[in-house]
Amino acid sequence: MAKTTEPAETESGRLYEDVDGRIDERDDWARRRRKAIPTDRRLMVVACMDERIPIEESLGIELGDAHVFRNAGGKVTDDVIRSAALSTNFFDTEEIVVVNHTDCGMMSAPDDAVVDGLERTAGGLDGVPLDPALPELTIGEASIADWVRMTDDIDRACRAQVELLRAHPLIPDDTEVHGYVYEVESDALRRPGERIAEEISTRAGR
Ligand SMILES: [Zn+2]
User: Fold this and answer.
1) Which of 19, 31, 124, 172 has the fewest CB atoms within 10 Å distance of its CB?
2) How many whole angstroms from 80 Cα to the centroid of ligand 1?
3) Residue range 164-189, pLDDT digits in tens
């Protein structure tokens, strides 16, 4: 609401009431977190960083409506959990929407090609810190491919991200979590597993 520049309608029509209203709205906007005002839709969005997803437009949301977290693949990583835990427990977020998409870069290479590329850059992966602010968090015995988390099937991946959030102990049980697949080819969202294009293009879909 605070982003609007429309003067508020007042009973008396006095100018000062319009101006005061706008000043109060701006104050609410500027000091939202200090005043414990939640996002306008009490919403957090987790989406892939891909430049083709018009995330606000596709969901029909606006500036102020949601906390938006975008990363490679729209995966529920440790920092998504960190951010979602803060958003839901302290900023009154009640709903999380995950958006993955067709033709995601996370499906564009096999695991070993990604591991080789990262290994070349780092000159070996032993002891590489995953978080430069917390150098003690290293990959250890795990495969860096598990950390990168490439994707085989975007619909399955989307469902999996939703389940990870729903099951996580730091996210309140009553948080609504849903996922969608954005089709770059049609500029539309679908529920995971509902591939209309495939169904209406083959006899198997009848
Ligand atoms: Zn992507």
Assistant:
1) 124
2) 16
3) 999 999 999 999 999 999 999 999 99
* CA proximity to 96, closest of 107, 85, 106: 85
CB contact at 8 A, 32 and 94:
no
- What's the 104 CA to ligand 1 centre distance in angstroms? 4
Using a 10 angstrom Cβ sphere, with 0-12 exposed, 13-18 middle and 19 or more buried, the burial of residue 146 is exposed
Q: Ligand 1 center to residue 70 CA distance, Å?
A: 10
What does the block give as tokens for 53? 């997803």
Give me 139's structure tokens: 């990959």
**Alpha carbon of 171 to those of 70, 74, 75, 177, 188: distances in Å?**
18, 18, 16, 10, 29
3-state class of 68 per DSSP? strand
- pTM for this model (two decimals): 0.89
Tell how far the Cα of 101 is from the centroid of ligand 1, in angstroms.
6
**Ligand 1 centroid – CA 148 distance (Å):** 13
What CA–CA distances, in Å, run from 67 to 6, 24, 98, 177?
A: 24, 22, 12, 14
> 105 CA distance to ligand 1 centroid (A)?
5
Q: Confidence class of residue 137 from pLDDT cuts 50, 70 and 90?
A: confident
pLDDT digits 0-9 by tens, 34-44: 999 999 999 99
